[in-house]
Amino acid sequence: QAVLERDGKRQKISVSTRLKQDEGIWINGSVIVPLARVFITPKQLQGYEKINRQYAQIDFRTLKKMLGVPVDYQVLENVLTAKPVDARAFKRAKLSFTKDAYVFGLRKRGVEVQFVFDAEFRLTEQRLKEGKTTISVIYDTYKKINGQWFPEQLSATLFGENGATTLTLSTRQAQLNGNINMPFAIPEGYKSILIQ
């Protein structure tokens, strides 16, 4: 289930998500009836919504300009799987300890990155800040599947000049390392949405 909160408004959507490491993220959203489908690949995001019969395609360079923070496919995959958005940051990060947590922090070329791990070294928060824009992802709970920890709930918040937007994803069922089918095709007759 996904909950989107912005400007005091809250929307709930049932979401099915499939992820094939380094290949694609498939998302299907519905409220009683199917509403939208999104397919994210290392090159682009594309999706369509069924009510207005519209679709959109956007590359990561354009998405970075829109959000104001560096984002690409690997960052999105890492956020969903509770891995640090930039593992290379650990080479130069400073380590500090707080109550029951390890905190790694780094500032490089105007970008601040922070990773917080619990006593079992599971990621509990990661924060990325560039200029006036901050993205914070908090991992509230974990579940062990096939010997691997998997986030049951995460809350991603984008703080910017226009306020805050929070997306909370809750996992009811997760399957790891299985055969994954990710069907995606933009239906005929749908109109393109220009995203800038």
Report on the architecture of this protein.
The chain has 196 residues and is mainly β. 8% of the residues lie in helices and 56% in strands. It has helices at 60-67, 73-80, and strands spanning 2-6, 9-20, 24-31, 33-40, 44-49, 54-59, 94-98, 101-108, 111-118, 123-130, 133-145, 148-160, 163-170, 191-192. It has a 14-stranded mixed sheet with strand order 7-8-9-10-11-12-13-1-2-3-4-5-6-14. It is globular and about 55 Å long. It starts with a strand and ends with a strand.
Keywords:
196 residues, mainly beta, 14-stranded mixed β-sheet, 2 helices, 56% strand, globular
How far apart the termini lie comes to: 28 Å
Shape: globular
Q: Helical percent range?
A: under 10%
* Whole-number mean pLDDT: 90
Question: Strand share of the residues?
Answer: over 45%
State the secondary-structure class: mainly beta
Strand order of the largest sheet: 7-8-9-10-11-12-13-1-2-3-4-5-6-14
The radius of gyration computed from the alpha-carbon positions, rounded to a whole number of angstroms, is 17 Å
Q: List how many beta strands DSSP finds.
A: 14
H/E element string?
A: EEEEEEHHEEEEEEEE
Number of helices: 2
Q: What characterizes the major β-sheet?
A: 14 strands, mixed
